[in-house]
Amino acid sequence: MQETHEAKEAAKEYMVKVLQAYKVLSDDIQRQDYDAFGKIPGEAFDSASFTAQEIFEYFHQQSPILSKTHQLESLSVLQRILNFRGNRLFLLQVYDDSCKSCRWFASTWEGLTQSSLVEGVVVEMFRIDAYSTEGPQLLDALGISYKGEIGIYAIIDGKKWAMPHLKTVVSSRSGRNAFTSLLDFVMSFFYDKYIEINSLKVENNNTQDILEWLQEERGSADAVRVLLPPLTVESIALTLSYKYEGVAVVRSVSREALIDFVENHCEQTVEMRGRDGEVIPKPEFIVVSLQQLARVTDMTSKSIGESKVVMNCSRINVGVSATLSYRKADSFLSDALPPRHPGMANVKYVTGMSLYELCRRHCLLWLRESCVKPPSDTWKSALQGNYKPFSVGYLCLDSEAGLREALATPTPDTLVAIVDGNEYNLHFLLAEPEPSQIARALSNLLSEEQESTPLRLKTPLSLLMTSQSFHLSYMQYFYINSRWIYSLIYPFFSNSYPFLVMFIMHKLLNRFNLLGNNNSSNSNSTNSNGGATAFNTSSATANNGGNRDGSATNSRANKKEVSPFTAADLEAAKDAKGFLLLFFQNGKEEMPALPPITEDSRFTVRLVSPTDPRWDSWLSEQRPQGEETSTGEGSSTEAKEPTVVAIRQGKMKATVKPPNAAMDSWLCDLLDGTITATAPLP
Questions:
Q1: May I ask which residue range the UniProt record assigns to the signal sequence (predicted)?
Q2: What is the sign, positive or negative, of the torsion defined by CA atoms of 338, 342, 343, 346?
Q3: In Å, how far are 19, 32, 40, 110, 396 from 28, measured between CA atoms?
Q4: Which residues pair with 584 in a beta bridge?
């Protein structure tokens, strides 16, 4: 079959590559360049055959780890985070682009950004590039030492908390475990609030419990009460509770009880229809009570004479959605809330917590002496002007005692500007409350065309304002610390745990003899120390007219005693089973150690004198020819091994152990039938 033109051309190209490779491998310099750069010198770079990640690695670079979260690059921003006091958690990730664990953890980090806690700015996420220009300064300010591995930290009220079990999670390379551990670490700080949200107990879906809660007297901190059923996104209630703390109280109850309250008591329908008019099954909803419910009263109808219960659901708003997201719930609640102070509906009220968000960059603050009365139309129009990039808000000095002492305001109502989030410098605007004059003054601050002498504070403005610390009970505080301590000892415990279990099991097995080898162990230990399980040969020695030394007898008192052979043993063997072992040993000679198998109940051991005339002639007949002579010649130079005879009880047949056979092997062969007793007894 002839080759086509395309096949010939492909063969030529292949041969060119082979020759080129041979040329490179034959030249030391070219081979070194190929190992270093991954290409043949002089070859053109083909970018189409590489991915973007491979191109970065080809040029010895790393692609940056991208993220939706903020990059912390300023010491001033970090200082504001450390100065913050309130119910907000700052989550920090320390990383670098060349860190493999950081690159692997990136997807887990980005997954947390979808949480409603992050969307509601209850949790704010930052990243610090350890190898950036400002990275070392930021890490020094936090007291963190970076060792080339990812670090996750939470900052609450200026205190730093490290994520426990982070190394274990990263080493497991399980994305699911990583996200669960990160979420558990964050949620551990909000456990107390979570318990508070679920503290309203409704037994048997009884709406009376809900009514009693809505009829309780309310203060300024709980003037608005919010009810939510268990939602698809459970953290929505938690986020709303933190965001509107001091204004509204959020509780979660069962869906059945809340629907019964809305539909049967308030006579409102919880229904949601789609675009085509179809009814959506099980829509999600939120109930907002703007004032205390009055007690239910009974009214009597004179015309009919029947009593009628009047249902009171005054100022109860119900919002329904197919899927209630945090954004929808927040919008519904914020629209339903009345203004904090009269006449200030469209102006942001600034507290110790909201100051951080409002003055993230530039802000304009109206310092009001008192917020009891509504402002004049002049001030309202001035504050509603467009002063971008400045955010506008107001605060009440009558509720900020610490701030009043630090500020000596020239007039009861003063405008103050903060530039670049610097809470130490306050720029007072002495202009009249005219939008044009205010805009001109703010523009001059940014352009620095006009010199301004700000008021320098020794304490940042956020710390001068009244604020509540992060709500953390003592129980929760100790729980978080215990998890951190456990994360330190867990690696050591996990590595030593198998050895500890093996040690304990070994001790228990030996203690209760569960393996059944204690006797064997004792015998082996005795043999290793040079001792042997000896027979008490005092009786045999007495039969042969010999006497043992007293000290030798005492030293063997704790060893097993072997009885001497008598005629009664043969009579008993006729009806018994097993083997009768006869050891022919002189009483003056030391008995060698017996193997542990002789402890078996199928063996009966007896000691016989070799000079017994009944057995002497029989043993001579059983020995192979020439054995006696050789044994006698060597008896003077080495210890003579005793002769052992095994009698099969019941059959009354015997066999003699060969002199070169191992004792334990020979006895095992007797038990399994490899060796049979065939010689008749004398």
A1: none
A2: negative
A3: 16, 6, 13, 48, 80
A4: 608, 643
| Per-residue pLDDT reduced to its tens digit, 422-477 | 999 999 887 678 888 899 889 988 887 666 788 899 899 988 888 888 888 888 88
User: Which two tokens mark 455?
Assistant: 């008021």
Contact between 343 and 380 (Cβ < 8 Å): yes
Residue 433: closest CA among 499, 393, 385, 493: 385
- CATH topology for the 70-188 domain: Glutaredoxin (3.40.30)
What pLDDT sits at residue 525? 42
Domain 533-627+640-680 = CATH 3.40.30.10? yes
| Structure token digits, residue 243 | 């965001």
Helix locations, 143-197, DSSP H: 166-172, 175-187, 191-197
Of the candidates 63, 127, 138, the residue with the CA atom closest to the CA atom of residue 95 = 127
Q: How far is CA 131 from CA 358, 580, 632, in A?
A: 31, 85, 90
626-631: Cβ within 8 A, 24+ apart: 627/659, 631/659
Q: 166 — phi, psi (to 5°)?
A: -65, -40
Structure tokens at 510: 């030996």
Helix, strand or coil for residue 181?
A: helix
* pLDDT per residue as tens digits for the range 28-62: 777 777 776 666 656 665 666 666 666 665 565 66
Three-class SS state of 377: helix
**Residue that has been written with the tokens 């200026």 in this structure:** 158
Query: How far is Cα of residue 21 from the mean position of the Cα atoms in its chain?
Result: 51
Q: Which structure tokens are listed for 651? A: 């059959």
Write down the CATH superfamily of domain 348-464: Glutaredoxin (3.40.30.10)
Q: Are 514 and 195 within 8 A, CB to CB? A: no
Say which residue the tokens 């490179």 belong to.
24
pLDDT at 62: 67
Burial level of 59, CB count in 10 A (0-12/13-18/19+)? Answer: exposed
Which tokens go with 495? 């590595």
For 138, the token pair is 């930021």
Three-state DSSP class for residue 676: coil
Judge whether 70-188 and 348-464 match in fold: yes
**Sheet architecture: strand order including 284-289:** 248-252, 224-228, 284-289, 316-321
Evaluate whether 263 touches 270 at the Cβ level (below 8 Å).
yes
d(CA 579, CA 165): 65
The phi, psi pair for 140, rounded to 5°, reads -65, -40
**Contact residues for 563 (Cβ-Cβ < 8 A; gap 6+):** 539, 606, 607
Q: Domain residues of the chain, as ranges?
A: 70-188, 198-298+309-336, 348-464, 474-515, 533-627+640-680
590-628 pLDDT tens trace: 666 778 888 888 888 888 887 787 888 888 887 765 454
Q: By C-alpha distance, which of 393, 519, 541 is closest to 465? A: 393
Question: By the 8 A CB rule, do 415 and 364 touch?
Answer: yes
